[in-house]
Specification:
The protein is α/β, with parallel strands linked by helices and about 280 residues long. Helices cover about 55% and strands about 15% of the residues. α1 runs parallel beside α3, α2 packs antiparallel against α3 and α3 runs antiparallel to α9. The longest helix has about 35 residues.
Length: about 280
C-alpha cells in the first residue's frame, strides 16, 4: 500500500477492480472516536477520493462493535476547560467542532460512493458517520443510538441534518429527542439500512457484492450521480451543521452539560435541572 494509506486507526486496501476496503481498527474497545481516528478519517477520505483507481469505498470494522461514538474520556480534558471560559471558550468549542465536522463531511464529499457495513453498537458519532455514507447495511446484532441529548449537547456532526433525508423527519426526531437504542430490524424497517445480514462475514460479503456492482459501472457517471444527489441536500446540511455548532457553543457551558460530564466520570445517572 502507498504510504498515504497507512494510518494509526484505519486499515485500508484497494482491490484490482477499484474497491477500497477501509476497516476501523482503534486500540480501544468499541472503536471510540478519539483524536487519532478523527485525524485519520479527515486525511484518508480526501486521499481515496482523489485516487482514480478507487471506484467505491467500503467502511466497516472487524471488531465486535462498529463504534461507541465520541471518546468522552479523551474529549473531556479538551472540552472541560472551555466550559468556564466565556466567549473564549465558546470560540474554542466552535473551532473544535469544525474540525470534527470536517472528518465526517469528507466522507459525504468523497467523489466515490461510500458503503457502511455496521455490526454491533453504532452510537453517536458512529451513527453520524454512517449517515454521511451513501448506502448502509448491518448485521442482526447491530444497534443504533444518537445519545448526545443524554450528555447535555446537540448532535452536531451531521446526524440531525442528514438522517431526516434517510429515515424521515418523525423517526429522526424520535431518535434525537429520546436518545434511545434501536435494533437492526427497526433500522431496516425505517430505511436506515438496506439489508440486515446474519453475521459479520455475510455483512462483509454483501457490502463487497454491492461495491462490485457499482464498480462495474462507468466511474465518471457514478461520481456524477452521487454529486447530483448530494447537491439536493447540501445547503440544508451545511446550514444545519453551522446552527448546531453555534447552539453547542452555549449549551456546553451550561450546568447540565457539566453535570453530564461529571455523571459520566462518576459512572452514575445525571440529575439535570435545566440550567
Amino acid at each position: 500500500m502507498p504510504s498515504m494509506y497507512e494510518f494509526k486507526t484505519l486499515n485500508i486496501s484497494v482491490t484490482d477492480n477499484g474497491i477500497a476496503d477501509l476497516v476501523i481498527n482503534t486500540p480501544k474497545k468499541g472503536n471510540p472516536f478519539g483524536p487519532e481516528l478523527w485525524t485519520d478519517l479527515g486525511n484518508a477520505f480526501p486521499s481515496l477520493s482523489d485516487d482514480k483507481k478507487v471506484r467505491v469505498i467500503v467502511i466497516r470494522t472487524e471488531k465486535k462493535n462498529f463504534s461507541y461514538g465520541l471518546d468522552l474520556m479523551e474529549a473531556a480534558p479538551i472540552v472541560v476547560p472551555a466550559i468556564h471560559s466565556g466567549l473564549e471558550g465558546q470560540q474554542h468549542i466552535l473551532d473544535l467542532g469544525k474540525k470534527l465536522q470536517h472528518a465526517l463531511n469528507v466522507i459525504a464529499d468523497a467523489k466515490q460512493p461510500v458503503i457502511a457495513a455496521v455490526n454491533g453498537w453504532c452510537i453517536g458519532a458512529g451513527l453520524e458517520l454512517i449517515s454521511a455514507c451513501d448506502i448502509r447495511l448491518c448485521s442482526e446484532d447491530a444497534k443504533f443510538s444518537l445519545r448526545e441529548v443524554k450528555v447535555g449537547m446537540v448532535a452536531d456532526l451531521g446526524g440531525l441534518q442528514r438522517l431526516p433525508f434517510i429515515i424521515g423527519e418523525g423517526h429522526m426526531r424520535e431518535m434525537a429527542l429520546t436518545g434511545s437504542d434501536y435494533s437492526a430490524e427497526w433500522a431496516k424497517e425505517k430505511g436506515l439500512v438496506n439489508y440486515v445480514l446474519s453475521d459479520l462475514e455475510s455483512l462483509k460479503n454483501k457490502a463487497i457484492e454491492i461495491a462490485e456492482s457499482i464498480a462495474a459501472n462507468p466511474p465518471l457517471v457514478v461520481n456524477g450521480v452521487k454529486e447530483v444527489l448530494n447537491e439536493r441536500i447540501e445547503q440544508s446540511v451545511n446550514n444545519g451543521l453551522r446552527n448546531a455548532l453555534r447552539r453547542n457553543s452555549t449549551l456546553m457551558q451550561s450546568k447540565d452539560f457539566q453535570e453530564a460530564i461529571a455523571a459520566f466520570m462518576d459512572q452514575r445517572s445525571p440529575n439535570f435541572t435545566g440550567e
